[in-house]
Amino acid sequence: MHSTQNVTKKRILTGDRPTSPLHIGHLVGSLQNRVALQHSYETFVLLADVQAMTDNFADPQKVRQNVYEVMLDYLAVGLDPSAVTFMIQSQIPEIAELTVFFLNLVTVSHLRQNPTVKAEIAQKGFGQSVPAGFFVYPVSQAADITAFGAHLVPVGDDQLPMIEQTREIVRRFNSLYAPVLTEPKELLSAVPRLMGLDGEAKMSKSLGNAIFLGDSADKVAQKVMGMYTDPHHLRASDQGRVEGNPVFAYLDAFDPDKAALEAMKEHYRRGGLGDVKVKKHLLEVLEGVLAPIRARRAEYAQDRGAVQQLLRQGTARGRAEAAQTMQEARQAMGLDYFSEPADR
Ligand code: ATP
Ligand code: MG
């Protein structure tokens, strides 16, 4: 499985919060890049259940169920279990340990400025009652990334502040103690943020504006036919707006025939092209992408034992990596009391 030649490969770490199954925003934002790079990088994928708990602590059952759902999505999109290490965050306590030391290297006022966390606090309506665990999740994400010595992190653009925060922590740690941690870079895709069915800036699990990878063909059709478009494009003969129109945003992301798509956009702008026609075309394009994913997902769902086994093996392998990093981090800080020689 993991041949020794992997030692020379650079590493990818990325992951998802198991708060719901994954959607087509995840696919274009991050999953496609992971699949494309899984054989050229040593790839670690983290099911971030501890992070999911920071705003779902009252519903751990939901988090637990979605670990399995997200794992099915991974396998369905073509992440190859012979190349990828799949891990459950809560079963790797070294990540939590590293987080505790990292918390000393950031200030509360700096954390307050994180634009993604700020937006999420507003969106979730936390007001002044932000759980402390949620507030500091960018720090735990820095531990996720560095625990596995990742060089590259394929993410959507909402994660840029987290990667920057990680680099700052790594520099701080390395200069204060010893240079043992790796500074990561982000990898953005061509579609770093897919908008929602409702025209909201971000398709999101928690906003009810998503097409999920496991949605049935009927469900996808229902969602596409109900999509928000240009509100001023009432009749087919009206001139239409392409910009900010999610139907065209999805075609941009998924339609391989760019020349035909440009012609379609022109027609829509000019007037004479109805929403229903464009939506039917989008549906065909999406089905081309989703049908094989849906079929593979259903296949893996039949063998829960095998999926469980992949998670168990991956988590054990990941834990060994994180333990190694933690050992080096303790040594760097001089907190390795019981390592040889005993009289250090
Ligand atoms: P939650 O609402 O629970 O935070 P989420 O949809 O934001 O869910 P995450 O698990 O937080 O999903 O993010 C997983 C990865 O997918 C991240 O790299 C994130 O940037 C990316 N991602 C999420 N939504 C989109 C989107 N609409 N377009 C592109 N990338 C996305
Ligand atoms: Mg998110």
TrEMBL record:
InterPro entries documented for this protein: aa-tRNA-synth_Ic, Rossmann-like_a/b/a_fold, Trp-tRNA-ligase, Trp-tRNA_synthetase
EC number(s) on file: 6.1.1.2
Protein name: Tryptophan--tRNA ligase
Family: Belongs to the class-I aminoacyl-tRNA synthetase family.
SUPFAM superfamilies reported in the protein's UniProt record: Nucleotidylyl transferase
A molecular function (GO) term: ligase activity
Record key words, sorted: Aminoacyl-tRNA synthetase, ATP-binding, Ligase, Nucleotide-binding, Protein biosynthesis
